[in-house]
Every structure is written in C-alpha cells, then in structure tokens.
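Hey,
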Amino acid sequence: MEQLVMKQAQPWDRPFWKPVRRKEGVFSFLVLIHALTILGLILFPLPSLKVLGMTLLFIAFGGLGTTVCYHRMLAHKTLKTNRFIEQILIFWAVFNGAGHPASWVAYHRLHHSNTDTPDDISSPKQGGFWWAHLRWLYQTAPADKQRWAPELNRGIYKIWGWAETPVILLSLCIGLVLGFGWMGFFWMGAIRLVYTLHMQCFVNSITHLDDVVDGDSSKNVWWLGPFQLTAWGENWHKNHHSHAGSARLGLRWWQPDIGWYFIWTLEAVGLVHSVKRPRAS
C-alpha cells in the first residue's frame, strides 16, 4: 500500500492534460502554438522562399542563443564574453521560446545533479518518453532559481523574467510585424516555435534512451544534429555528460558542432575568452 501511494505521488502519474499550479500559462502556450501550427500548415502548406528564409534565420539565431549562451556559457560556465554579446544571445534564446535565463539554467543544473533518478525532472527512465520530451515542462514545479542559478536571479538577468512574455508575443507575431502577412505569421511564428521546441525537447527524450551506465542514460544521436541547424552539437549528448565542463560538444572531427565553430570564431577575434576545452581522456 505504501509503495502504491508513493507511485501515485509521482508527477508523471498525473493526467497528461493537467498542468501543475503556476504552470497553467506554459500549458496554454504549448496548446496554442501547436493549434496554430496545424492551422498554418493547412492554410499555407508551402511557404514562399522569403518567408522560409526568414523562418530559418530566426531558428538559427535562436539556436545559437540557446546552445552557446544558455547551455555552454550560463549553465556550465565554459566560456565568457562581454555583457553586450551575452544580452543579445539571451534575447534570441528567449525569442526562441527557451524561457528566461535563470529558469532554463536552474532546470538544466537540476537535471545534471540528479540524472536519471526520481529527482531528475526530465528523465525518460522515470516518466517515459513523452514525460521527458514535453510533459515535464508543465507538470513539474518551477525549479528553485535561487538554489540552482542564484547568479542569474538578480541584476540585469531579472529583467528577462519580466520581458519574457512580451518577447514571446513578439516572436509569435513577428511575421505580421515585419509585413509578411498571414503566411509569415504562421511560419515565422507558431510553426517555427513548435519546430524549435521539439528540437530542444529531443535532447531530453531521445538522447536519454540508452541503457543506464553509471547512473547516466545519455547517448549521442548523430541523425538529430542536421535538424537542429545551429544547435547542431546538442545531439552529442553523451559527450556532454562525459565532459560537462567543456564548451565543445562534438569531440571528434566527424562530429559537427555548430555552436563550437561559433565560439571558436568569436574567440579568434577576441570577443570570447576563458573557453574551456575537453580534457584529454
């Protein structure tokens, strides 16, 4: 009986449609962008080249903001840059739908500290594929930002907590704002946000479907990379868990890592410094 009560208390045992308290907005947003995506694909199944080009450009900027700034720089402190470049990258990460920096980093550090245990907020080993892929976003309590990302819970970073909603509204409506009409509204807004959402979520789900070894189920998934565009490199997830202190995720010459090429370029021109590389194994 006690084991049954404990099992029922797990967050992944909730009905999939029921968000936890304070995550109702996240759930509503996910439903909205998926509904708009379906409608957009019905009305405009093929975008014009201009709309497609702008959509891919925004995906590219957003991917760099998430993988370089949120993941490698803020969460793992594997590189440093000046405040101007950092804030630009944060804007594109928020525009990409990744949330504000304190929240993203807090969730990620919590994940690394409890990988594949019941306390891991996004482990498929605990809650299954869909839990790790999407459900945890609206069915777990917000991560404790003061505990997991205290340096991002003050100063200029707090502004992004307030700015997140208007930036997301701009992101959703950017096609209309730039004068690309309803085709632009759907493709540059909801369709792009749904695409980038699932490309990020795949890192939590399919790259953690390997057998657990030493308490870690992470694995490299080579075919995922091209679909991630500028976030190509996040698919080398086993590499990342093995070398979490490295700014480089593609550790072999045949493992493309767009984020690393971007970092290397900025370092070469003096805009990035203190770059941490993988230790020789």
